[in-house]
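To close the section, here is one more complete example, presented without commentary so you can practise reading it yourself. The ligand is zinc ion.
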Amino acid sequence: MPKLPECDRCVLYARNPHLICAVHPTGPNTDTCLDFRENPDAEPDELWEPEGASYYNGELILQPQQRWTPEQQLELLDTHPLFTGRCPRCEFPFPQYETPPVHWDCSECGWIDDSV
Ligand SMILES: [Zn+2]
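Output:
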């Protein structure tokens, strides 16, 4: 008999490919194990991770917020003066900067680049 699904949560489970459990080395012979003892400290198979955070070395680390969805990034590519060279509101052509500015505010129509 192989191990039972609940073996994963049992204090007797050996977590060993050759030894299923301390009481039933080859697994219980029944569908339900009389010796099953739920391990209160058992960790779920997958650690629950809140959005914007993940476990690293057992510690919950906050990840930087992902600001842009792929759709938003595509839209940015289509409209942002960094990529189009034009103001998205008035089409005023921006000069070719050698070093692109952080904010591409438009001096013509007052468009404010708030993407960064
Ligand atoms: Zn403009």
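Once you have examined the tokens, check your reading against these statements. The pocket of zinc ion is lined by residues 87, 89-90, 92, 106, 108-109, 111 (CB under 6 Å). The chain is about 10% helix and 15% strand.
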